[in-house]
Amino acid sequence: MTSDQNRTVFRTCPLCExxxxxxxxxxxxxxxxxxxxxxxxxFSHGFICPKGSTLKQLHxxxxxxxxxxxxxxxxxxxxxxxxxxxxxxxxxxxVIDRHGRGSLSAYLGNPNAHNLGPQLFxxxxxxxxxxxxxxxxxxxxxxxxxxxxxxxxxxxxxxxxPDLDHTDYLLMLGANPYMSNGSLCTAPDYPGRLxxxxxxxxxxxxxxxxxxxxxxxxxxxxxxxxxTDGLFMAALANVMFAEGIAKVEPRIxxxxxxxxxxxxxxxPFTPERVTAAxxxxxxxxxxxxxxxxxxxxxxxxxxxxxxxxxxxxxxxxLVNALSIITGNFDKRGGDMFTTPAAGGAxxxxxxxxxxxxxxxxxxxxxxxxxxxxxxxxVAVFGEEILTPGENQIRAAITVAGNPVxxxxxxxxxxxxxxxxxxxxxxxxxxxxxxxxxxxxxxxPSALEKDHYDVGLYVYAVRNIANYSEPVLQKDADSxxxxxxxxxxxAILQGLGTDVDPAAMDDQNVFATVTSAxxxxxxxxxxxxxxxxxxxxxxxxxxxxxxxxDFMLQTGPxxxxxxxxxxGLSLDVLLANPHGVDLGALEPRIPEGLxxxxxxxxxxxxxxxxxxxxxxxxxxKADDSQMxxxxxxxxxxxxSWMHNIKVLTKGSLSCTAHVHPDDAARLGLSxxxxxxxxxxxxxxxxxxxxxxxxxxxVVSLPHGWGxxxxxxxxxxxxxxxxxxxxxxxxxxxxxxLSGNAALNAIPVTLQPA
Length: 752
Fold this sequence. Notes:
about 750 residues; 26 strands; alpha/beta; 4 domains; globular; Phosphorylase Kinase, domain 1; about 30% helix; seven-stranded mixed beta sheet; six-stranded mixed barrel; Dimethylsulfoxide Reductase, domain 2; Rossmann fold
């Protein structure tokens, strides 16, 4: 290739959970010319959604921050990195000196799951803080899945995924992958995979209060009252036992406790008893139960809509339980565990047995909410800042998050962040949250850093490994994202601003290697640590690349530093830019379990007990009460892609969907304005009258509400929309996981 020719680079899209392969053309001036799907990608085969094609616009966005910013006299101004680091040290150490480390806090947003640096190095910063006040987007949308998996299978990462490519029947609850591309179910071209089920004679059933795009393209849409999915699933289980059609695979039964307890626990949930509360006819419930048990294979998939309600953990548990009692768990075409290349909870430690899972190792200061996965519910973040007392939060660090738009009772959190003594944000935008920051540290753009989906491949519908080098070179004076996190850790440890992140990286790698060679279950157990380090360092790699190489080599397919010459390493992935296909999902029981008993726990006491609360909800259903639900859009990823003009062109999508009968009853007109009011707030939104929502439901999309003073997102401000989380209630959450209840929120509607 001559210097006047464009070069072609292949990489994985980092914008959502689909992990699609991209083919990127770069001209000699190092400008992106074209982005399209990589037809040779071993997983996505050329599929691409509208977001992936706009990485060029995201990189070139004039509003994207390229230099650190410090707030002076209420205004953010660009400064050098040295100046920014000194300000970070002054601010954070000052708060520690005045109030102690218990006054620190951190919030990690959703993009951290899509970025290699935070996946591998955010722990360095968090451990250095010395505080329990850790929050993340996990308690906004997915913590129930982790709780259910932890109690049932031994680890919070144990979340089965539907074997989409082989199932004959898919029951999908509260999910809209035509718009979201899947969630905790990594599957490029999810729509194509759903259509393939139907094309081979299978059936797709969608349970949702909205006739979503996914529901429109399914075989059957079951319109359910928001928040009642648990009642529906418990009734399905009831029918399966009552009619004697429940069946547990003998292999699974021999490694499972609690079947009798579960059968007894669902007895009160007859179809006839739940039909009024759910809005689903009893005969429909009976028919679906029979179809699931009669299908050659059946998979159950529940996501955002079943997690972001008061019974999120119980719902997630029932999803897994239905898979088990239909005889489809850990079986081709059912719900299965992955074998991730870079290692996961089910591939580490002693096969088939582990320490198990627990919550409540600490409790939040104000509301006494239990810790889950080392963090507190983000719904209590605001009150922990605003409520005086020992360990009141006085400083916050946010990483790639915009909780002012994405978490409950967001007006309260907005006020709370303004009350902090010091705040640091690691982010590429001056947005509704980072406008409160005293210092903003921008990481490189998505195209300027390497990429591997450590977290997302744990939930892929096929075992895959794909590594991407940076497409473009970052500015020479800008640190890598992992270097920012490591240096934050150094400052928090009191080591000052002159510490070399590379030295801390070396220390971290040395400790990791030393631990691995001393661990009997490791594939390098008993090896010489210096020998392993020499091989790991031979190419001069540091940071994310070096740590990923170690994880790949010591993972289930790993080269083990020469012990398995045909095994996986970073060099192997570099030689295969379209990815490495490691095969279809395979049965993982019992070796994949990590419970203390070495058994599947079908009836965890915490979840069995919550069925009492679920049963009590039957008589609380009120058909006269309007309920708010969210919705996702294909062209946005929560709030942070609303500044890309090509993704926001056309009519405003932030509208309130209302059923025609409700509109007529409430005096609302299409194109008019409705005031929606909950216990904690009110918003005014344009009305869109549509029969795509069931009666009694109003739907607003998640992540809007731009254009506030102090932000720098000019495109987003043009179509600001309204923030649905002004309406969500910080006092209402799933008690087992602390997950926010962002759906089934009681509201009133009136013309504005």
